[in-house]
Structure formats: C-alpha cells, structure tokens
Structure to design on (205 residues):
C-alpha cells in the first residue's frame, strides 16, 4: 500500500517555495504497528481499514532478514523502456561496483525507473526517492519522488517513477552520473548510491 506518488523537479541550486514549505514541515511521531492497531478500536470501519492496510504485520513482527537491522532493504534499480528488457542494477552487493556498469539510453526515449525494496519490522512513513544528475561534474537536474508509506511484508515491494524523456540532440549526447537517495520523512537514509548512464543516438545492440 502506498500513497499517491508525486514528483518535484527543479534546476539544481534553486530553492522553490515548495522546498521552503518542506523545510518547516515536521513529520508526526512514528508509531509502532501495535500502537496503530490499538488506536480507535471503537471505530469499526477504521479498524477494518487498518487491518487491510497492515496485512501480514498483524500476525506479528515481519522480519525478512534477521541479520539486517534496517527497516527498508533496497534490492534493485531498473530502468524500464516499453518493448525493451529492463536494465537493472543490483543494489544488494558492493555499491562501488555500480560505477563499472553504465546504462546506454537512446536519446529522446521515454523511460521509467523502478525501485524494488523490502520493508520489515515496522511501517515506514513518507518514503522518498531523490535523484541528482550531473554531467562533467556540473549538476543538470534534480528530481524528488514522493513514494509513500509502506507496511512490512515478506514480498518485495516496488515503486515506479512517472515517465521521463531522455535528453536528445547532439549537445545532449554523452555520459551522466546520478546520485540516488532513498530516504523518508524522518530523514533516515535507507540507501544512497551512485550510477551512470550514457545518452547515444541509438541503442547499444
């Protein structure tokens, strides 16, 4: 279960009114699953809604990996283009290896980014995916995607960004570096990683 995805996009280095509002926003205190279930028991419709929302978590603490204390385990990033195989980055291993793997993207193509992750132990509130793109060391783009809140589950959960158009034209071709961050309303850093892509006139086949 997730909230409605939203995306904010601004040129790097410019602060918008929306960012100023966010800077004064204070998220509500985190509540455990037990506290959420115990509240408003007299409201039958609300109780049923919370039970449907929490799913597996009602039966007890959902722990997928007992050796990993994190609440959010980010597993994979995929670059998705219609009628093509997904280009995937494994985020469960050594993140420094990602610099050796460069996505090649055809200029002007429409794509989405999908992030696969596991939520365990407790509900996570207000997940966000922040992506900053650089070319030749200079910032060229920043996107913030509001992913939503998720209950713990044994299955992998996913978030897919709205469609984006890759840059096009002779000046747009070349190599780009991306800094990605998976965070939340409480500013917990669930994962931060760097990856690269290259814009070409056509796909590398």
């Amino acid at each position: 279960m997730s909230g409605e995805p939203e995306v904010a996009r601004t040129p790097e280095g410019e602060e918008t009114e929306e960012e100023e509002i966010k800077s004064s926003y204070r998220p509500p205190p985190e509540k455990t699953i037990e506290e959420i279930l115990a509240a408003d028991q007299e409201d039958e419709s609300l109780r049923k809604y919370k039970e449907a929302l929490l799913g597996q978590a009602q039966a007890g603490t959902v722990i997928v990996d007992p050796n990993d204390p994190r609440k959010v385990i980010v597993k994979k990033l995929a670059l998705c283009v219609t009628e093509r195989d997904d280009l995937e980055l494994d985020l469960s291993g050594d993140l420094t290896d990602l610099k050796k793997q460069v996505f090649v993207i055809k200029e002007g193509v429409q794509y989405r980014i999908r992030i696969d992750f596991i939520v365990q132990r407790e509900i996570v509130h207000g997940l966000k995916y922040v992506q900053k793109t650089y070319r030749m060391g200079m910032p060229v783009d920043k996107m913030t995607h509001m992913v939503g809140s998720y209950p713990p589950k044994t299955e992998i959960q996913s978030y897919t960004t709205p469609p984006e158009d890759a840059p096009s034209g002779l000046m747009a071709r070349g190599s780009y570096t991306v800094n990605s961050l998976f965070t939340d309303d409480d500013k917990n850093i669930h994962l931060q990683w760097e990856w690269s892509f290259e814009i070409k006139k056509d796909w590398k086949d």
Notes: Confidence is low (pLDDT under 50) at residues 1-5, 14-25. The chain has two domains: 30-58, 61-200. The radius of gyration is 19 Å. The longest helix spans residues 44-54.
